[in-house]
Write a structure and sequence with these properties.
By secondary structure, the protein is mainly alpha-helical. Helices cover 61% and strands 11% of the residues. The chain starts with a helix and ends in a 6-residue tail after the last helix.
C-alpha cells in the first residue's frame, strides 16, 4: 500500500469522526454570508459600496445589514475621513460567526481527541497536513 493509498483510506474515517453535525448552514442565509465575507475581506465599507460590489440594490443590502446588526454581527461606525458617511464593520461576534460558519470539522470533537495525543504527535499531525497542502501547491490556512 502506498502512502497515498493509506492516507485516502484514513481520510473518510477521519472526516466521519469529526465533521460538523449542527446544521450551521441553516443559520445564515447566502446573502448574509456574502455580506459578512465581503466585509471580512475588504474592511469597513459603506452600504452603497457593499451593494455595488455584491451587485444588489442598496435597499436590499441595507436590510441585510440591519438584520445582521440586530443579531450583533455588524456595527455601524462613522467614517473617520468623512463624518457624514457611515461604515459597516464586523463585530467580534461577527468574525467568530463567520469563522464558525466556515468550519467543516467540529472543533470541540477535534480538541477532545487531540487531548489524548502527546505534544509531538499533535505537532507532527498539524505540520504533516500543512506540508501535504503545500505540496499540492496551495497555501496552508
Amino acid at each position: 500500500m502506498t502512502a497515498a493509498d493509506a492516507f485516502c483510506e484514513a481520510f473518510p474515517a477521519t472526516f466521519l469522526a469529526f465533521h460538523r453535525r449542527d446544521g450551521r448552514r441553516s443559520e445564515l442565509t447566502n446573502a448574509s454570508r456574502a455580506v459578512l465575507q465581503h466585509l471580512a475581506l475588504t474592511g469597513p465599507v459603506s452600504i452603497g459600496e457593499a451593494a455595488k460590489h455584491l451587485e444588489r440594490a442598496q435597499s436590499v443590502v441595507s436590510d441585510i445589514v440591519s438584520q445582521l446588526e440586530g443579531h450583533g454581527l455588524l456595527e455601524r461606525e462613522p467614517d473617520p475621513d468623512n463624518r457624514r458617511r457611515t461604515l459597516v464593520w464586523l463585530t467580534e461576534q461577527g468574525f467568530e460567526r463567520l469563522r464558525a460558519d466556515a468550519d467543516v470539522l467540529d472543533r470541540r470533537l477535534v480538541a477532545e481527541a487531540m487531548d489524548h495525543l502527546d505534544e509531538t504527535t499533535r505537532r507532527g499531525l498539524i505540520e504533516g497536513l500543512n506540508a501535504l497542502v503545500a505540496a499540492a501547491g496551495r497555501e496552508p490556512r
